[in-house]
């Protein structure tokens, strides 16, 4: 037998290492470690080549090595790790494999890979796993997390460790009920469910002595603070609220579990006082949040908390959300999730993996102890200290022989310690009959026989106090507990034991116990492997005992296989219990044999130990029973199925939904039949996935799509109406202009120098010109409406109060309608109510332009709808009130929009008595029915689809009127009856004031000028009175000399028309096509310093466009002002911007550039001349 073995060994020695590695299924390569430069392996087997190709690194290979190539970044990092690895214990991950390096003859590095548990994910990541023992807590957590794998499911708790994402609104709004989505009114005594929903924690908050804190008694709390408290107490997540500078704490019931024994003493107290253990760094972090006002989050951060009487290691993922309070201070909303179990579970799993790597690398059975000590050195958290003893075998005994008599062993030898002072005298080196182990560990035989780790503690004498004193002498934080772990080979055979100290910062709970059990089990399995390996060697040397040893080996292998099968079944059930989907097993009769926790939570199926057949039908919505019948028949027929179902359990969406579809919980059920060898169905296996949120999201998306389509339809309808209203006047303008042009062209053909024209022809020309003006004004009103709507949508609309006489402003504004009223035989009366005189209303502070916009809109509508009627009367009533009006002569005002800002309460409104100015417009038009009344005051809406065709308009007037009245602190309303007429009424808030110091008398005012003032055609800043009033005052000082005007305009048509009109007005006109020509013109004038023969230009003024080629208007006026400051231009050149850019921001930019005034297009010469004279009179 010996000779046969020697012959086999000689044959085996002929096998080369390359041949061995070529047949190895693992990916293996070899490098020359003497070459420190980055290099390709000198050898790689087929598995390695396939792996590299699958990770995107295609290359050409030769027989024994690699062709020259350019590896990608991750592969380069992998090569650097191989060359830089210091010991054979270094480990890295690459291509879905875990790699180790073994050095032969101090030169050749043999690199081999083992598939990870999760397999290759298709991506490559180099993740070295350092073995250094001394690392910081944060670094260690990060290091351990790199080895995370699906074994996390073994140590993870039953529930999901990740916090659920919830929508949080800290805007002072009401909290939402978890059950029905109704407002929670904790502070509202009239709320009927307040007492029914009162919990002990809410009662604690309400009864707490808040008067002793900075927050003051609850009765003094602001609405914002009450709503914030409501939201906090209804939040199911752990959360706290820190109010104002003192950061007084208020927290919900879930947060009290985080507080531990600090609750309820910390309620209402400053945050820094009760959480002082967080340290200055965290407080500085929170100070930055308060200072910068930016919300921040932390993920799995380490904190040592003293909340249960000891320094506890915890990990929290938290968020700090600052928000401003109503009084301008800052508060902070803090939600915190305890992820301690997950972080520690990951760390413990990583340690178990590393422990397996170390002890699996033992080359000889007795190397097991040294490798175990190395592994224990790596974990300073769960292994604060350790003592390792082995059974005291004789020098000629093997481990297996020693294990067989381990029950009678009295000799135990110290193999080594971990983090125990070397000079400790309380750690025996050897136990024997003279120094029995029972003197060191009480009840030692009992502990040795236990299959699970045993808790040792100082209180019962099982743990040596002297040992703990030695450990604490170096300042280490050691608790009074340790565990005793017997290390077995198989069965009752004990080959050693391990004493491991417990982490002083963590409780010895179920998770900690499971970790120690897994560690002990892993040590036992590895020791059994070492013993079996030694046993095989012994059997090779002892041929006489071969048969017996073979039988023993098979018996042990069977036991190990059985144990592994049981463990595999246990792991599968535990994985199923922790799975995020519902898993079930049903027999063919419909009896539920097994279901995991998620199944019961999802379906709300009763947990009956003896469920009835088909009892799970009761959790399915009745509407889906027919569908379930069909699918169940398919399963019994041997066909796998996947389908959607609704359950009776209610789904509560994150936001309230009006669709009954979401009342049920939606699931996807996937099941397949389990068959025996004969093909008969013996059971049904499957899983359930909750898709309620996806269904809810699909419904929300569908509704939003319909809303978008409706908005698009409204916008298209608005564009159609606007285009119609713009094109109709264009047709009249073109036809009127053609009429004038054709008539005058015929007259000018006369050979006489003096042309006679009939009165009728002149009247026709005047009528055509008035038509053009009227149509232009109509188009301008539409454009103004669109601009105002844009400002309203962008929240840019402003209200500018000035001192005015409201009655006089209204009278002058109504004069603009005199021509239209006369041409349509219509009567308009202005009535002043007695309340106006009783309150002695004279001068008020309000915005006349916004007031007139509403009045003109309502009056225009009244005229438009009254023209077709037989009786055509319009009555406008003006009144006042000191109290907030709720109605006006039977007209009920519409409720204000909650989100609408009131711009009438600023400091620029003064401090005078508040007065409400009421205006009512009554007509005898067609009136409106109930359906038509509901459509009014909405954007793009008119009374009926025929309104636009019959009366015109864009559907914006009343919507804008409502917006403007509410912005001025007022309301608008309607009283109408079909066939009788309509009455519109509105009011605005104003304040009494004294007359302005420089009162400009409002004499007879051109109605058209009043309209232009109301729509801001000329913008020279806030005006107490319309521009025409200024012109009235200016008449005594009117410039009598000729005005010299320079027109800077690139549009030749506008240049020609404006020049002609100004010359008609008696002006001397010069033109320039752009800004540079304007500068050249000034250089040749008397205003230029060095000009010797410059043009004399008395009463000189410049009208300048903004958008021009070569040099624009803004650049030109800036250059003019710079030349004035340098002294090159003598005196001040008045410049008026003439532009179509009418937005307030564009006007402000023009003024900042140096413009003296801004006139927006379109404008009329009678409006421009007074503005020019005003600037010419200025010094």
From TrEMBL:
<dbReference type="InterPro" id="IPR005467">
    <property type="entry name" value="His_kinase_dom"/>
</dbReference>
<dbReference type="InterPro" id="IPR058846">
    <property type="entry name" value="PAS-like"/>
</dbReference>
<dbReference type="Pfam" id="PF00512">
    <property type="entry name" value="HisKA"/>
</dbReference>
<dbReference type="InterPro" id="IPR036890">
    <property type="entry name" value="HATPase_C_sf"/>
</dbReference>
<dbReference type="InterPro" id="IPR003661">
    <property type="entry name" value="HisK_dim/P_dom"/>
</dbReference>
<dbReference type="InterPro" id="IPR000014">
    <property type="entry name" value="PAS"/>
</dbReference>
<keyword id="KW-0418">Kinase</keyword>
<feature type="modified residue" description="4-aspartylphosphate">
    <location>
        <position position="1105"/>
    </location>
</feature>
<dbReference type="InterPro" id="IPR001789">
    <property type="entry name" value="Sig_transdc_resp-reg_receiver"/>
</dbReference>
<dbReference type="Pfam" id="PF00989">
    <property type="entry name" value="PAS"/>
</dbReference>
<dbReference type="Pfam" id="PF26131">
    <property type="entry name" value="PAS-like"/>
</dbReference>
<feature type="domain" description="Histidine kinase">
    <location>
        <begin position="721"/>
        <end position="992"/>
    </location>
</feature>
<feature type="region of interest" description="Disordered">
    <location>
        <begin position="1013"/>
        <end position="1035"/>
    </location>
</feature>
<dbReference type="InterPro" id="IPR013767">
    <property type="entry name" value="PAS_fold"/>
</dbReference>
<dbReference type="InterPro" id="IPR011006">
    <property type="entry name" value="CheY-like_superfamily"/>
</dbReference>
<keyword id="KW-0597">Phosphoprotein</keyword>
<dbReference type="Pfam" id="PF02518">
    <property type="entry name" value="HATPase_c"/>
</dbReference>
<dbReference type="InterPro" id="IPR050956">
    <property type="entry name" value="2C_system_His_kinase"/>
</dbReference>
<keyword id="KW-0808">Transferase</keyword>
<dbReference type="GO" id="GO:0000155">
    <property type="term" value="F:phosphorelay sensor kinase activity"/>
</dbReference>
<feature type="compositionally biased region" description="Polar residues">
    <location>
        <begin position="1013"/>
        <end position="1022"/>
    </location>
</feature>
<dbReference type="InterPro" id="IPR003594">
    <property type="entry name" value="HATPase_dom"/>
</dbReference>
<dbReference type="InterPro" id="IPR035965">
    <property type="entry name" value="PAS-like_dom_sf"/>
</dbReference>
<dbReference type="GO" id="GO:0006355">
    <property type="term" value="P:regulation of DNA-templated transcription"/>
</dbReference>
<dbReference type="InterPro" id="IPR036097">
    <property type="entry name" value="HisK_dim/P_sf"/>
</dbReference>
<dbReference type="Pfam" id="PF00072">
    <property type="entry name" value="Response_reg"/>
</dbReference>
<feature type="domain" description="Response regulatory">
    <location>
        <begin position="1044"/>
        <end position="1176"/>
    </location>
</feature>
<protein>
    <submittedName>
        <fullName>Putative histidine kinase M3YPp</fullName>
    </submittedName>
</protein>
<dbReference type="InterPro" id="IPR004358">
    <property type="entry name" value="Sig_transdc_His_kin-like_C"/>
</dbReference>
């Amino acid at each position: 037998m010996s000779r046969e073995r020697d012959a086999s060994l000689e044959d085996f020695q002929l096998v080369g290492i390359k041949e061995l590695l070529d047949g190895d299924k693992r990916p293996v390569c070899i490098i020359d470690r003497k070459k420190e430069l980055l290099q390709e392996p000198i050898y790689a087997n087929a598995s390695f080549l396939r792996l590299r190709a699958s990770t995107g690194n295609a290359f050409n290979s030769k027989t024994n090595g690699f062709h020259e190539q350019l590896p990608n970044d991750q592969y380069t990092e992998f090569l650097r790790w191989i060359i830089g690895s210091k010991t054979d214990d270094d480990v890295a991950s690459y291509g879905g494999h875990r790699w180790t390096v073994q050095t032969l003859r101090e030169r050749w590095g043999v690199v081999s890979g083992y598939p990870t548990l999760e397999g290759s994910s298709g991506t490559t990541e180099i993740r070295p796993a350092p073995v250094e023992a001394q690392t910081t807590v944060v670094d260690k957590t990060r290091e351990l997390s790199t080895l995370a794998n699906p074994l996390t499911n073994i140590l993870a708790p039953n529930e999901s460790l990740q916090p659920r994402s919830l929508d949080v609104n800290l805007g002072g709004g009401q909290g939402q009920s978890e059950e029905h989505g109704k407002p929670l009114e904790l502070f509202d005594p009239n709320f009927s469910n307040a007492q029914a929903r009162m919990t002990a924690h809410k009662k604690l908050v309400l009864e707490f002595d808040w008067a002793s804190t900075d927050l003051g008694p609850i009765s003094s709390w602001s609405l914002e603070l009450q709503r914030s408290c409501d939201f906090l107490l209804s939040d199911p997540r752990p959360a706290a609220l820190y109010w104002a500078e003192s950061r007084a704490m208020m927290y919900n019931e879930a947060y009290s579990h985080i507080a531990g024994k600090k609750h309820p003493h910390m309620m209402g107290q400053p945050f820094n006082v009760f959480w002082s253990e967080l340290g200055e760094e965290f407080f500085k972090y929170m100070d930055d949040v308060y200072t910068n006002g930016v919300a921040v989050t932390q993920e799995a951060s380490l904190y040592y908390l003293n909340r249960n009487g000891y320094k506890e290691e915890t990990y929290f993922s938290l968020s700090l959300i600052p928000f401003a309070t109503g009084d301008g201070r800052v508060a902070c909303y803090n939600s915190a999730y305890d992820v301690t179990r997950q972080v520690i579970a990951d760390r413990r799993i990583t340690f178990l993996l590393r422990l397996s790597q170390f002890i699996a690398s033992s080359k000889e059975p007795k190397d097991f102890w040294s490798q175990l000590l190395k592994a224990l050195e790596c974990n300073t958290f769960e292994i604060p200290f350790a003592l390792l003893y082995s059974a005291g075998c004789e020098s000629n005994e093997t481990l297996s022989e020693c294990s067989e008599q381990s029950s009678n062993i009295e000799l135990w030898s110290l193999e080594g310690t971990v983090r125990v002072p070397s000079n400790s005298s309380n750690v025996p080196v050897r136990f024997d009959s003279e120094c029995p182990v029972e003197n060191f560990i009480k009840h030692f035989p009992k502990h040795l026989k236990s299959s699970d780790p045993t808790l040792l503690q100082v209180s019962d004498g099982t743990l040596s106090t002297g040992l703990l004193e030695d450990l604490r002498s170096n300042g280490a934080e050691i608790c009074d507990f340790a565990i005793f772990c017997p290390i077995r080979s198989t069965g009752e055979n004990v080959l050693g034991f391990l004493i491991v100290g417990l982490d002083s910062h963590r409780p010895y709970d179920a998770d900690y116990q499971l970790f120690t059990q897994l560690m002990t089990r892993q040590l036992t399995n590895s020791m059994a492997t070492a013993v079996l390996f030694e046993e095989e060697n012994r059997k090779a040397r002892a041929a006489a005992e071969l048969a017996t040893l073979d039988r023993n080996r098979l018996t042990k292998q069977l036991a190990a296989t059985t144990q592994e099968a049981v463990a595999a079944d246990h792991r599968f059930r535990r994985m199923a219990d922790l799975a995020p989907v519902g898993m079930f097993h049903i027999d063919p009769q419909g009896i539920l044999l097994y279901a995991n926790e998620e199944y019961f939570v999802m379906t709300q199926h009763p947990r009956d130990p003896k469920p009835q057949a088909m009892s799970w039908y009761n959790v399915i919505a009745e509407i889906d029973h027919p569908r379930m019948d069909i699918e169940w028949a398919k399963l019994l027929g041997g066909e796998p199925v996947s389908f959607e179902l609704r359950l009776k359990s209610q789904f509560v969406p994150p936001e309230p939904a009006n669709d009954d579809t979401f009342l049920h919980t939606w699931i996807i059920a996937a099941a397949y039949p389990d068959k025996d060898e004969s093909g008969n169905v013996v059971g049904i296996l499957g899983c359930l996935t909750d898709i309620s949120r996806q269904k809810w999201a699909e419904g929300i998306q569908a509704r939003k799509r319909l809303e978008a389509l409706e908005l698009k339809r409204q916008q298209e309808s608005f564009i159609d109406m606007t285009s119609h209203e713009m094109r109709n006047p264009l047709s009249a303008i073109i036809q009127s202009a053609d009429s004038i042009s054709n008539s005058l062209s015929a007259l000018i053909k006369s050979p006489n120098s003096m042309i006679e024209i009939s009165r009728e022809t002149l009247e026709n020309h005047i009528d055509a010109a008035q038509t053009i003006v009227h149509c232009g004004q109509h188009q301008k009103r539409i454009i103004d409406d669109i601009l105002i709507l844009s400002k309203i949508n962008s929240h840019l609309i402003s209200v500018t109060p000035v001192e005015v006489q409201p009655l006089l402003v209204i009278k002058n504004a109504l004069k603009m309608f005199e021509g239209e009223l006369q041409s349509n035989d219509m009567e308009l009366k202005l009535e002043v109510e007695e309340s106006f005189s009783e309150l002695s209303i004279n001068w008020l502070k309000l915005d006349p332009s916004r007031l007139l916009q509403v009045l003109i809109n309502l009056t225009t509508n009244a005229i438009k709808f009254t023209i077709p009627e037989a009786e055509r009367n319009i009555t406008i009533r003006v009144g006042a009130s000191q109290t907030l009006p709720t109605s006006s002569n039977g007209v009920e005002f519409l409720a204000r929009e909650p989100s609408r800002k009131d711009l009438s309460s600023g400091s620029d409104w003064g401090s005078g008595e508040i007065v409400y100015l009421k205006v009512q417009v009554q007509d005898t038009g067609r009136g409106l029915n109930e359906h038509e009344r509901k459509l009014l005051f909405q954007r793009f809406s008119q009374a009926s689809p025929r309104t636009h065709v019959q009366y015109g308009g864009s559907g914006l007037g009343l919507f804008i009127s409502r917006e403007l009245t509410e912005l001025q602190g007022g309301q608008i309303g309607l009283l109408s009856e079909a066939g009788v007429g309509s009455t519109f009424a509105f009011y605005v808030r104003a304040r009494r004031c004294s007359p302005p110091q420089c009162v400009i008398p409002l004499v007879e005012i051109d109605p058209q000028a009043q309209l232009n003032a109301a729509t801001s055609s000329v913008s020279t800043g806030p005006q107490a009175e319309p521009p025409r009033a200024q012109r009235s005052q200016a008449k005594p000082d009117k410039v009598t000399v000729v005005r010299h005007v320079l027109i800077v305009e690139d549009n030749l048509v506008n240049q020609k028309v404006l020049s002609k009109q100004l010359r008609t007005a008696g002006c001397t006109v010069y033109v320039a096509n752009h800004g540079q020509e304007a500068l050249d013109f000034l250089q040749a004038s008397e205003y230029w310093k060095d000009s010797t023969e410059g043009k004399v230009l008395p009463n000189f003024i410049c009208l300048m466009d903004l958008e021009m080629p070569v040099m624009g208007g803004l650049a030109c006026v800036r250059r003019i002002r710079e030349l004035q400051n340098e002294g090159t231009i003598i005196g001040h050149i008045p410049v008026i911007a003439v532009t179509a850019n009418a937005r307030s921001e564009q006007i402000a930019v023009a003024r900042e550039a140096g413009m003296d005034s801004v006139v927006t297009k379109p404008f009329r010469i009678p409006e421009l001349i007074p503005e020019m004279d005003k600037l010419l009179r200025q010094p």
